[in-house]
Design brief:
276 residues; alpha+beta; Alpha-Beta Plaits; 6-stranded mixed β-sheet; 5-stranded mixed β-sheet; 8 helices; 21% strand
């Protein structure tokens, strides 16, 4: 029984002993909801409401490991029990069985989307990538066996880098083929792009009230914003209401000043963006 650890996964490889493998596989099928597997491999993903079962299951693995290893390593046993947040992979390896090799070609499209070209249909690998890049938009195209990843934060680049450095995935040796210089350029570009988006979102939260005052959206052009502004200042100009009605006149005057200030702040923002 071999145990290996990565930041995201606890990998358990059982050699020859089919009964132990099927015992663990059946335990997973009975007690856990989010899992994938096939004849000689099962992968279990973390679910928040299954922590009790996971603790029991990890203790079971540690117990089996202790029973099977003549030179028992207590530190590994402790690490097994502490792997609550990791994906758990159980693999059954027969004598003289070579682990499958996966060759994955990675390409970057339009300096944005990341496309993984898989040699053949592999639903287990696709499920692994979906879970690995959770909270990302991922599209699997069966016709050409590609998985397309759409980034959404700086974390995307970090996850990609970790993935490309892995030597084993779902019990297979993996060989990523990609242009290292293209990836490094993409990584820096993505980081800068996401930082700009983060700053824009923070700025928009400050400007959002001003956009609403001018009946505009954040992606409107400055020409559209100015057009709305001119319409509103004409509509709420103090001269448009009779001075015999002090209450209404005061309302128009306040509205007019609010519109003027909103336009001024948005104009400053556009001028800053233009000079940046």
């Amino acid at each position: 029984m071999q145990i290996s650890f990565s930041p995201e996964m606890l990998a358990v490889t059982i050699e020859d002993d089919a009964s132990t493998f099927y015992h663990l596989q059946n335990t997973i099928e009975k007690n856990f909801s989010k899992r994938i597997g096939r004849k000689n491999k099962t992968i279990l993903f973390k679910q928040e409401d299954e922590e009790v079962q996971r603790r029991y299951f990890l203790k079971l693995i540690a117990k089996i490991y202790k029973r099977k290893k003549k030179l028992f390593d207590n530190e590994i046993s402790t690490r097994i029990k502490d792997s609550l947040d990791k994906t758990i992979k159980i693999t059954h390896l027969k004598s003289n069985q070579l682990q499958q090799q996966l060759k994955i070609i990675m390409k970057i499209e339009d300096n944005y989307a990341v496309v993984f070209y898989i040699a053949s249909k592999n639903s287990v690998l696709v499920s692994y990538l979906r879970n690995y890049f959770k909270n990302h938009l991922i599209k699997y195209r069966l016709r050409n066996n590609t998985v397309t990843l759409y980034p959404h934060s700086n974390n995307t680049a970090k996850l990609l880098e970790k993935l490309l450095n892995q030597k084993e995935i779902i019990g297979c040796y993996v060989d990523f083929s990609y242009d290292i210089n293209e990836f490094l350029t993409y990584k820096n570009s993505l980081t800068n792009k996401m930082e700009r988006r983060k700053k824009f979102n923070a700025l928009f939260s400050l400007l959002e009230e001003f956009y609403e005052i001018l009946d505009c959206k954040a992606d409107d052009t400055f020409e559209t914003i100015r057009k709305n502004y001119l319409t509103l200042v004409k509509q709420y100009h103090p001269d448009m209401v009779s001075h015999t009605n002090p209450s209404l006149s005061s309302h128009y005057s306040h509205k007019f000043q609010t519109i003027q200030y909103a336009y001024k702040m948005i104009k400053i923002h556009f001028e800053h963006e233009k000079s940046a």
